[in-house]
Write a structure and sequence with these properties.
By secondary structure, the protein is mostly beta strands. The chain has one domain: Thiol Ester Dehydrase, Chain A. Helices cover 15% and strands 42% of the residues. Strands 2-5-6-7-4 form a five-stranded antiparallel sheet. Strand 6 and strand 7 form a beta hairpin. The protein is globular. The N and C termini lie far apart (45 Å).
């Protein structure tokens, strides 16, 4: 989907379970090596984490000029990705809710390799009022 085909994200208009972008990429030895170098662990196994499946799936469907604040991530790893295999990613909106008068969005992405092996499931929690961050500190003493 090109940027012209994406739509503007407006909190309250999305639906739980809404499909986001799906895509495939080749998991290469180079990608694995770069990840291992970046995390300074020559045995790191789950370089798919660096691909940011959730954010990519979201941006394939939505433009979000106001952004959001990362309020947390959960990642479940199932099988190590194998260099030379294709990885298929599917994304969806897993949840929306309000906490402390702030809206939150939960984006979920699932990665499966070409053999059908589940690699990872990632959930990202975003607060959708980024202008709220820091207000409590700003009002306490400036």
């Amino acid at each position: 989907m090109s940027e012209a085909e994406t739509r503007l994200f407006e909190y309250g208009e999305e639906r739980i379970g809404e499909e986001l972008g799906s895509y495939e990429y080749d998991f290469t030895q180079e990608l694995l090596d770069r990840f291992r170098q970046a995390v300074q662990d020559p045995d790191a196994r789950f370089a798919t984490l660096a691909v940011k499946h959730d954010a990519t799936a979201f941006r394939m469907v939505y433009q979000d000029p106001t952004g959001g604040v990362n309020a947390g991530n959960e990642v479940e790893f199932f099988n190590e990705p194998i260099p030379g295999k294709k990885v298929r990613v599917t994304g969806r909106i897993a949840d929306v809710y309000w906490r402390r008068d702030k809206p939150y969005l939960v984006i979920e992405a699932t990665a499966v390799d070409e053999d059908g092996r589940m690699l990872e499931k990632m959930r990202t929690y975003q607060m959708k009022k980024p202008e709220e961050v820091g207000k409590k500190w700003h009002s306490q003493g400036t």
